[in-house]
């Protein structure tokens, strides 16, 4: 009797050697699928056993191709919460509705964070992570420390393809001094997304609840008050998700912002940027960190934005592509959502289109602040 050899998993095969029943190479199937929205790709798991093997969880080659193609077609993701229900709507940059869905959750959402296609929702009794593209909702194990939460964030570590939820809380050390402690939860993706919370150390600065961290290239960044007699009144605190260590980053030498100004941190094309604009004035300066190791900044943008309602906050940077110029997504003084074309210096108002396509009043304010969103196949191993 001949010995039967166990076939390796599909992902271990050379893609060019695998064909389906119709004789199509797997490479071609993956190339076709990578051009489709994630919600359709998820539905194709029922087509055949081969496609289910490719899509549950998504093949790594498919994920990479899909991610690269999605990066050229940014979407705007709107989230709103009503009692025990959450609602997601995504629109393209012309205001056309692309996708929407709703989910029931255990308790109302108190706060949320967004990073690289996923959203983390903090509720009074639960913590969830959601992929709006695949409509997966993962309930994260609750930690008693979340009752004392000071701030929290969702980050992505590209080197391991993992997402990490971080939250900071205050407690007293052995000397009875108040310290800020960080706790992390890692999401690995796929059926083994579940993990545990663990404490990783204390922050050297007290963070400001007014300035939430952003994640750029696997590190969290905050604007914090500078130390006395240190020159600039503002500093940037960094937390590396790979090494789990803190570092203080100096602001650009030509930056003169104060804590009460409308300055903020932004991610532009994968680089950390510092945005500075004085309250009530239309002028905006944006510095980009060109060399993270040596902390070298360059002033990348400097422009004036004149509009009926002067802008207060730059929400997102929208890259150029598909005949589209680079734009800044801006939240203006009276709730208007504006697109500022950096090349032509023209402004277009998205508010009316959003009201029409989402079906609710955009003047609800910060609860509808959009996130720049790229369609994602990242699997949470949950439905």
TrEMBL record:
PANTHER family attached to this UniProt entry: BNAA05G37150D PROTEIN-RELATED, F-BOX ASSOCIATED DOMAIN-CONTAINING PROTEIN
SMART domains in alphabetical order: FBOX
Domain F-box stretches: 24-64
Cited InterPro entries: F-box-assoc_dom_typ3, F-box-assoc_interact_dom, F-box-like_dom_sf, F-box_dom, Gal_Oxase/kelch_b-propeller
CDD domains on file: F-box_AtFBW1-like (cd22157)
High-level lineage: Eukaryota, Viridiplantae, Streptophyta, Embryophyta, Tracheophyta
Protein name per its UniProtKB record: F-box domain-containing protein
The organism's place on the tree of life at top rank: Eukaryota
One Pfam entry name: F-box
